[in-house]
Amino acid sequence: MFKEIEKKEKKIAVIGLGYVGLPLALLFARKYKVVGFDINEKRIEMLRNRIDPSRELSASSFDNSDIEFTNDVEVLRSAHFFIVAVPTPVDEHKVPDLNPVLSAARTIGKVLKKGDYVIFESTVYPGCTEEDCLPILESVSNLRLGTDFKLGYSPERINPGDKKNTIEKVLKIVSGSDNEALEEIAKVYGSVIEKGIYKAKSIRVAEAAKVIENTQRDLNISFMNELSIIFDRMGISTRDVIDAASTKWNFLKFSPGLVGGHCIGVDPYYLLHKSHELGYDPHVILSGRRINDKMPEFIAKKLVQILIAKDKNPGNCKVLILGITFKEDVTDIRNSKVADLYEELKGYSMQVHVSDYMADSHEVEEEYHITLTQKIDNDYDAIIVAVSHQQYTEMKSVDYKKLMNSNPILIDLKGVCKDIDPEIHYWSL
């Protein structure tokens, strides 16, 4: 397979052109023939015009790329090495929503040919590729794994907003349905990944490695969030404690905060789901998730306490939240816990404005029914810095003070504000 791809006799197809799929497709397209497929017609049109809808890549990133962008399934017939990079979210009940990845399997099954390879990159629970996706591939294509086609899993390691650890500079895990598949998949990825390749023992091992990466981060952050609740009652700064503790050589420095996005706040539920299927209730993972999911409620209650202490009626107060994307300097609003914080504050009858120069106002309205504030006022009772976008980190406390009325309150969830004006009541996680 690799030799034919290398000679451009066979094409690579990437299904799903979001944060993960697009940079991967363009990376391969610098050397090989690539088909970039997405069901979103508007996205395909933008990509044809060298515009990344996620605003992660510049127009120059499309230079020297041998790629065809399409939403036509028939075009996929010309490909032989299929990579699935679609989202794997959870539903409103925190149950894994496999519809995107299963739909991608059905699409590939329609065009799968003898000798083809199918590799999944979407984050799933261990066993999903072989137990859920493979049967669909075989059923739709009338082909059989091993005899007719090969299967693999290579977990994505894209970090949105990170311009340093780009896709080719991060070690890539690969796995295959047999030794031949493993070696060929490793050659294909290894030809573009500068950092190198790690060959996992099996597809399930590769799936498990991915899902525990983000679960580990989730648990570490939940520990810091629980500490912030405890230290707040003690009247000491959690960040001061972390700075002091991190002077020890083996201390792992994590920070408290809202845990959202399409990875850390989602992936643990995939592991939880599979664990429950196997009859085991994972106490530590579930406890960490509960703590992180409760943080918007904790922050809202804290603001209410501060307002009351300053003889302000929360129901008559006006609050500004700065930032709604799931992390700094990205446009992605998926699973934003800032939206949960907004709802918590509205539950106290506060007037709440949300501003975010990185977010798409239409997407925010559609996803969360929140109308972004276009004009920031100067009479807020409190400001919550929820996301550490560069513009917010460059603001000084006096800049925030100008936007507030008497007895100003600044809630700094990311701990980015320095040199706090003494007239401001400052609180941070």
Structure explained in plain terms:
It is built from 14 helices and 13 strands. By secondary structure, it is of the alpha/beta class. It has two domains: about 1-205, 3-Layer(aba) Sandwich (Rossmann fold); about 255-429, Rossmann fold (3-Layer(aba) Sandwich), CATH 3.40.50.720. The strands form two sheets. Strands 3-2-1-4-5-6-7-8 form an eight-stranded mixed β-sheet, with helices on both faces. Helix 11 links the parallel strand 9 and strand 10. Helix 7 (about 205-235) runs parallel beside helix 10 (about 285-310). The radius of gyration is 24 Å and the shape is elongated.
- Report the CATH C-level class of the largest domain: Alpha Beta
* CATH homologous superfamily placement of the largest domain: NAD(P)-binding Rossmann-like Domain
Which outline best applies? elongated
Numbering strands along the chain, what is their spatial order in the largest sheet?
3-2-1-4-5-6-7-8
- Name the beta content range: 5-15%
Average pLDDT number: 94
Low-confidence stretches: none
CATH 2nd-level architecture of the largest domain: 3-Layer(aba) Sandwich
Structural class: alpha/beta
CATH topology of the largest domain: Rossmann fold
- As for the number of domains, it is 2
Main sheet overview: 8 strands, mixed
SSE string, helix = H, strand = E? HEHEHEEHEHEEHEHHHHEHEHEHHEE
Ends apart, CA distance between termini: 52 Å
Radius of gyration: 24 Å
Number of helices: 14
Strand elements, count: 13
Approximate helicity band: 25-40%
